[in-house]
């Protein structure tokens, strides 16, 4: 691991925070100044383990990090995906003992910040504390939406819903909603939506044949947003990407029709 200045990697997270929380220039400068270390992780590697006491939080610079639970017989269920610009375990700043382990799904780069730096910043700035809180609340609401999708959705709708969500989350960073990288195998998707890899393959083929998406060469291209949204029963409100008013200068439109 190499000690580095935050710079561009922290700007990714700051952009995420400001989608939901207005921050002063002073607050922005504080976030951009957070020192940390770069950690490179191979694919399918545990980043933090159950019961471990961690001293840092991890910002995803590149790749995808999955949160998971595991049964006694070793089967894993992914409960969240964290993409470029997401802080994968911000809650560790106040709850350092790991109750939800993290794993890389592909070669991943992290920027790890000492938890005490996050705690100090929150204690000194109520607006930063609120922004961190909003980030954690949104993460919990995404988890709740996943639960409904898996518990009540058909196999096809579960995958369509996940693709819609990833498209929106990547889209606010890149400005391109209709095409995004899919750094997940069919087995990863299956572990997120409660299906076998074979079933995932069939459902992706069904989505392709319906004309809503094309999935190839590590990317998804959305051909018909309205159709994919209906297939997934998807409403982006739970992502809270439209919450700031026009005074913030960061109002993001995610109209899917």
UniProtKB/TrEMBL annotation:
Residues 153-226 form the HTH crp-type domain. It comes from the Bacteria. Keywords: DNA-binding, Transcription, Transcription regulation. It holds the Pfam family HTH_Crp_2. The keyword Electron transport does not apply. InterPro entries: cNMP-bd_dom_sf, HTH_CRP, RmlC-like_jellyroll, WH-like_DNA-bd_sf, WH_DNA-bd_sf. This is Crp/Fnr family transcriptional regulator.
